[in-house]
Each structure stands twice: as structure tokens, then as C-alpha cells.
Write a structure and sequence with these properties.
Blueprint lengths: L1 E2 L2 E4 L3 E5 L4 E5 L3 H4 L6 H4 L7 E4 L6 E8 L9 E6 L2 E7 L6 E5 L9 H4 L9 E5 L3 E8 L17 E5 L11 H9 L2 E4 L10 H9 L5 E5 L9 H18 L5 E4 L18 H19 L4 E4 L1 H4 L15 H15 L9
Parallel strand pairs: 12-13, 12-14, 14-15, 15-16
Antiparallel strand pairs: 1-2, 2-5, 3-4, 4-11, 5-10, 6-9, 6-11, 7-8, 7-10
């Protein structure tokens, strides 16, 4: 989405917030969110890995942002500022108040261009990468210098769309961002923390998006209590809808990541039944669509989370180390699945 010569990446709707004279960078449009499960209705409005992208020769830049959250959990909103593929700075935002961020471009004049033009991004591109709360864009001031969105050749040519649970919805240093950086690709993060219910409306939305080149589906962990037959129907509808709309594009399905829901972790002899059943459903759906000729691939979650110490003490969510390991493992898997450009 481009507005006022600024690209808002991983954003489908700019929702006006009059109290801040700004707009929320929403990943899912309201007319979709309001058809999903109650939690997805506000998680989909969060700005996880949304980016504000622009190019300007301004020597001084003033950026005004705010943040708000609908969850009663402690949160410290943060944005990561990048120039191309290089981290420039990090800035905390204060909830429900406008924060002004002052940016001065780095001096790359003495650096060889082949060093800077790496991983698909031009070093001229400012990228403000948002964290999980709803980030509100309140304005950009370049003090009279021109601003434009990045040209096509200044950003990666390949875009991967990721749909999944909180593990995918994982923030600015989560595994999707690590994977994207390693592969030199764009990442559309449509993870829905605690709200990945694989609804038909979500399948139709993903199918309607035209500018992704590869799809990564992490399904199951948020609905382990669901009737297995209903889960199978939802997985089938997702695959049927997406493969019909994008018959030649590669799709990678991930079986459920290892967690305390798995029998491997549990002392009870009958523990992990739901995890096992849902994983069987995912494998069966993959085999069915592969046999039909779909460009679909299966990645075992245990090959991505390959060490229990990747997890936090809830034995579900990865810690920082875990996200880094997962991102690199995923990049290795996808390098042989996605037709990626050479860098």
C-alpha cells in the first residue's frame, strides 16, 4: 500500500485514529477481522512486522509514531529502523502517546556498493519495522526534501506470506524476520497470536492476495481442542482455496512445532493425543494435494525447533535463541522449495 509517497508494507488498511491525528497500520482489514474469531478481531489489527518504507535524501528526518494495545498484558512497543538490510537503531514507543523519532542517515560513502546491496534491499531504503501492538503513523517530516516509495529494484523480488499462531506472529526479531533476512526476501506476516483458527474467510483472504510468491502455513496449535474432523475440513478448505487461486505457486505446510502438547514432553502415557492426531491430519492433507499435482511441500516442525531449549519455560513459545535457530533452519528448508533470486 502506498500513501503520500510512502510504502506501508504488510498493511492492508490505514484506520484513522482521530485522537492521534494518525492511522493504525492494520495487517487485516476490518471487514475481514470482524468475521473471524473474537481474538483475531483485534490481533489482526496489530502491526506485527508491518513496515514503513521510503527513500529520501533528507539529512534530518522526523517520524511521529504512537501505539495502542487491546490486550491486558504488559507490553513495551518498539520499532526497529533499518537502512536496507542493516539495522540503524531501535526506539521504544509509549502507549497512547505520540513519540517523535529523529533519524540521521548513516554515512555509507566510503563503503563498496557490493557490500551494501545485499539481501535484496537497497541501502537507500528506510525501513521502520513495527512490533506487535497497533502502531499509529502520525506523520513524517523531511524538512522540504522529497520522499518517494522504494522502486521495484530496491526491494526483494520474492515475497513469502506466513500464516500461523503466536509463534509466527512473533515480532521484529522472530523466526519469520530471521528467515527473511537470511533468504533476502520480503515477509508478509499474517500470524495471529492465539487466534490462528484457519477460518474459511482467512483462506479466501490469503487466496485473494496476489503479490506473494510463496506461502508458509503453520496451522493447528491454536485449535487443538477442536473436533479433528472440523480441523481437517478447515485445512482442506485452506489448501483447496489457495491452490485453486495460485496453482503454480509453492506452498510449504509446517507440522505443529514441538511443545508441551507433544507426548515426547509429557509423563502421562496417553499425553499428546491431540497433537499427534492434528499432525496426522496435516500430513494426510499434504499427501492428498501433492498427489493432485499441487506445488505443495511438507516441513516437519521438529526439524525447525530441533532442540527443546529453543523454548521458553512455558514449553511452547520460542525464546530469542529459539527464534534465531528456527529462522535459520527454515531458511535452509525453503532454499530448496522456493525459486529464490540469487544474491
Amino acid at each position: 500500500m502506498i500513501e503520500n509517497n510512502i510504502e506501508f508494507f504488510n498493511v492492508t488498511e490505514l484506520e484513522e485514529i482521530k485522537a492521534f491525528s494518525g492511522v493504525i497500520l492494520s495487517r487485516l482489514p476490518a471487514n475481514l477481522r470482524h468475521k473471524l474469531n473474537p481474538r483475531a478481531r483485534f490481533i489482526g489489527r496489530n502491526s506485527t512486522c508491518a513496515e514503513i518504507r521510503f527513500v529520501s535524501d533528507a539529512p534530518y528526518i522526523s517520524l511521529r509514531l504512537a501505539a495502542t494495545t487491546n490486550e491486558q498484558v504488559p507490553v513495551i512497543p518498539e520499532v526497529k529502523v533499518m537502512r536496507g538490510s542493516f539495522e540503524h537503531s531501535r526506539h521504544q514507543l509509549h502507549l497512547n502517546t505520540v513519540t517523535t523519532i529523529h533519524l540521521i542517515p548513516p554515512d555509507f560513502s566510503h563503503i563498496q556498493p557490493n557490500v551494501l546491496n545485499t539481501r535484496g534491499f537497497s541501502p537507500e531504503v528506510w525501513r521502520i519495522v513495527c512490533s506487535s501492538p497497533s502502531v499509529i503513523f502520525c506523520g513524517l517530516d523531511t524538512f522540504g526534501h522529497a520522499v518517494r516509495p522504494p522502486h521495484k529494484e530496491e526491494v526483494p523480488a520474492f515475497t513469502c506470506l506466513c500464516y500461523g499462531s503466536s509463534i509466527t506472529n512473533s515480532n521484529i526479531d522472530g523466526w519469520p524476520m530471521v528467515m527473511g533476512q537470511k533468504l533476502g526476501i520480503n515477509v508478509l506476516n499474517l500470524g495471529l497470536a492465539g487466534a490462528c483458527h484457519v477460518e474459511p474467510e482467512m483462506a479466501e483472504h490469503i487466496a485473494s492476495i496476489q503479490d506473494w510468491n510463496g506461502l508458509l502455513l503453520e496451522m493447528g496449535i491454536n485449535i487443538l481442542g477442536m473436533n479433528p474432523d472440523e480441523f481437517a475440513r478447515r485445512v482442506d478448505y485452506m489448501l483447496k482455496t489457495v491452490t485453486t487461486a495460485h496453482p503454480s505457486k509453492p506452498i510449504a505446510m509446517i507440522t505443529i512445532f514441538p511443545s508441551s502438547c507433544r507426548d515426547y514432553f509429557q509423563l502421562k502415557e496417553d499425553g499428546g493425543k491431540e497433537d499427534k492426531k492434528f499432525t496426522e491430519i496435516l500430513r494426510s492433507a499434504f499427501a492428498e494435494y501433492r498427489a493432485k499435482g499441487a506445488n505443495i511441500h511438507l516441513i516437519e516442525g521438529s526439524e525447525i525447533v530441533d532442540d527443546p531449549s529453543c523454548l521458553s519455560t512455558d514449553l511452547l513459545h520460542p525464546r530469542c535463541f529459539g527464534h534465531a535457530v528456527m529462522g535459520l533452519n527454515m531458511a535452509q528448508k525453503l532454499s530448496s522449495i522456493f525459486p529464490l533470486p540469487k544474491h
